[in-house]
Automatic annotation (TrEMBL):
This is Cysteine dioxygenase. The lineage of its organism: Bacteria, Pseudomonadati, Pseudomonadota, Alphaproteobacteria, Caulobacterales. InterPro entries: RmlC-like_jellyroll, RmlC_Cupin_sf.
Amino acid sequence: MESNALTTFIRSVRTAWGPLTTDLVAECRRHAAALAGASDTEPWLAALRRDRAANVELYRDPAHGFVLLAHAESAGLYRPPHDHGRNWVLYAIQEGEVEMGSWARITSPDGRVRLVERNRTILRAGDVRAYLPGDIHDTRCLSDTALLFRFTERDLRAEDPKRHPVTRYVQADGVWTTGAPR
């Protein structure tokens, strides 16, 4: 296998892999930052920047199940508040600027759910953000284009609906909510 930033990331994360710990997240963040800093002379990255596909699977680990995706985004693309279920995720910005907000889920005594925004952060090339199980966030592309990597602990599309699946929130009457009491 050719050695480049992508293969180095894969090899390094496979070596570090284990149960979710502070050390594992820190190690994966460090490797994701190196991946985000890859030279666009590397053929795999040059192809991503040329093709600008909305979603490309770069790697799926057959033993551990983690998945690395690349997303090309354009100005204003907004992904409403969501969590990643029981999974943790890293976002690494390779090019452009992406704003990420974090939210807290509040349940009123009558069972209605609403989100309260905690903060907003602008991530730029080389920045990496971790979201742990249950963390809620949104994203918005601020630059003309952005290329980001999303590393997930497992395939989110194959998530078991009985084991805390991904939750996507909707806006109703100016409030982000699940749309029904939980």
